[in-house]
């Protein structure tokens, strides 16, 4: 399998995990490191256009605020942090989403 196909398949799996969590209203961001990692993966895939998805996945956290979430995503974009896509599947599994 080519690297490009592998990346596309991995990004599709990430999106599927996130959409399952959103559709089930499951908070998979309760642990800060998980939240940060998810933001980094979303920004790696979507850049600026992933901001809304980051808000959607973050909204189930009881302490969610639009301003904090938006600021964190801006910071992630600015610094260009990256995590392995598989990490999102691990996080989602920890919360029973996959």
Give a written overview of the molecule.
With 98 residues, the chain is mainly α. Helices cover 68% and strands 0% of the residues. The protein is built from five helices and no strands. Helix 2 packs antiparallel against helix 3. The chain is globular.
Helices and strands in order:
Elements: H1 3-23, H2 32-46, H3 51-58, H4 66-79, H5 86-94
Helix pairs in contact: 1-5, 2-3, 2-4, 3-4
Straight-line N-to-C gap: 24 Å
**Main beta sheet strand tally, sense and closure:** none
Cα Rg: 13 Å
Number of strands: 0
Please provide the ordered H/E string of secondary-structure elements: HHHHH
Class computed from helices, strands and strand pairing: mainly alpha
Mean pLDDT over all positions: 90
Number of helices: 5
Helix content: 55-70%
What does this entry show, briefly?
With 98 residues, the chain is an all-alpha fold. It has five helices and no strands.
